[in-house]
């Protein structure tokens, strides 16, 4: 969900303060990748409203040019873009920038694209995103860029928001399995699990429920000899950057998922947890084709924005909706306020230890 017209005006709401990008600085990388995704949203709105283009500053301000918009063949909408780093304007920077960034937008409810966007959202819920036209086209696009260049001389990053984050995560895993691990930055990715993290209650109760859910899924799969997805060891060294907000129902369960991995590891049940994570209750109940869950990750760096969204309204429904929109928005990830960024936490998980490290997000 990309917001309204004001959000498309880079000079008003964009990170125009970032005039010299340090590519070794994690906050700068976060700002640039989230801005490029916003550029995709803006391109689609420019196109639908037939207005003077507002999208370009979202990538040109950081030295990128639009190499190719990615068009969804089902509704002729722009769902992504390939950005190439050219820096024709000699914008100051330090460190080595990516040669290409491929960005994917999320769901847009106000235009004709909404129906196909929601169809792709349902694919996420049923672990069937890999069969969608957008994902297949995204893989073709990545392969085309790779075929034009040697991976020894260029670097390709993937980034996305919401539905687009799901495409980026799944594409990153797919390319890693093919021997091409790509840096991946995803904001508010969807997850096909019950959002326990958003339910009231203490963590112990939630852990017990997650363990019970895991036992139920593994037992049911074993009894009926159902196919399951297993953690692919080929992606163990691939570490995507996952950005989530606890107030965002779309992605909050990633936080609980990470905690659950550590609880299971403490009891020596990591392999059991991995098996359970590869089984979707929705797939078991509704008999949908088994696909790879987006959240099935061996390794990840998760950045959690613990700032609670503040809205001013007494209407209960509006209050919930406005809080969700703020918690789900891209703009939170380029906000330069140091007081707000002090409430970001970095959680790291690695397949060798499955342990959780909690440190303030560093600047490098």
UniProtKB/TrEMBL annotation:
It comes from the Eukaryota. It comes from Brassica carinata. Keywords: Hydrolase. Residues 136-210 form the Fungal lipase-type domain. PANTHER family: ALPHA/BETA-HYDROLASES SUPERFAMILY PROTEIN, GB|AAD29063.1. This is Fungal lipase-type domain-containing protein. The keyword Amino-acid biosynthesis does not apply. Gene3D superfamilies: alpha/beta hydrolase. SUPFAM superfamilies: alpha/beta-Hydrolases (SSF53474). GO terms for molecular function: hydrolase activity. One of its GO terms (biological process) is lipid metabolic process. It holds the Pfam family Lipase_3.
């Amino acid at each position: 969900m990309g917001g309204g017209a004001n959000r498309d005006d880079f000079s008003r709401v964009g990170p125009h303060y970032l005039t010299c990008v340090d590519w070794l600085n994690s906050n700068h990388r976060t700002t640039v990748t989230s801005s490029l995704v916003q550029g995709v949203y803006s391109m689609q709105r420019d196109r639908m409203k037939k207005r003077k283009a507002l999208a370009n500053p979202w990538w040109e301000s950081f030295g990128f040019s639009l190499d190719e918009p990615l068009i969804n063949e089902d509704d002729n909408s722009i769902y992504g873009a390939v950005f190439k780093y050219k820096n024709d304007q000699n914008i100051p920077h330090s460190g080595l920038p990516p040669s290409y960034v491929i960005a994917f937008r999320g769901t847009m409810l106000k235009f004709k694209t909404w129906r196909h966007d929601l169809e792709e959202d349902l694919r996420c819920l049923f672990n069937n995103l890999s069969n969608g036209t957008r994902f297949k086209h995204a893989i073709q696009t990545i392969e085309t860029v790779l075929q034009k260049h040697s991976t020894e001389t260029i670097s390709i990053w993937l980034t996305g928001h919401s539905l687009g984050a799901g495409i980026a995560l799944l594409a990153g895993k797919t390319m890693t399995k093919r021997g091409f691990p790509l840096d991946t930055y995803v904001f508010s990715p969807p997850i096909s699990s019950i959002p326990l993290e958003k339910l009231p209650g203490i963590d112990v109760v939630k852990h017990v429920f997650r363990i019970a859910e895991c036992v139920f899924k593994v037992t049911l799969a074993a009894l009926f000899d159902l196919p399951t997805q297993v953690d692919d060891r080929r992606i163990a060294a691939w570490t995507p950057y996952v950005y989530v907000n606890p107030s965002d129902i779309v992605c909050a369960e990633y936080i609980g998922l990470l905690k659950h991995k550590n609880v299971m590891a403490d009891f020596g049940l990591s392999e059991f947890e991995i098996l359970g994570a590869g089984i979707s209750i929705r797939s078991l109940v509704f008999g949908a084709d088994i696909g790879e869950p987006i959240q099935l990750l061996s390794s990840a760096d998760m950045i959690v924005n613990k700032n609670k969204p503040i809205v001013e309204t007494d209407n209960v429904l509006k209050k919930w909706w406005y809080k969700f929109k703020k918690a789900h928005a891209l703009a939170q990830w380029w906000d330069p306020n140091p007081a707000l960024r002090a409430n970001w936490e970095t959680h790291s998980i690695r397949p060798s230890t499955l342990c959780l490290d909690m440190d303030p997000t560093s600047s490098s």
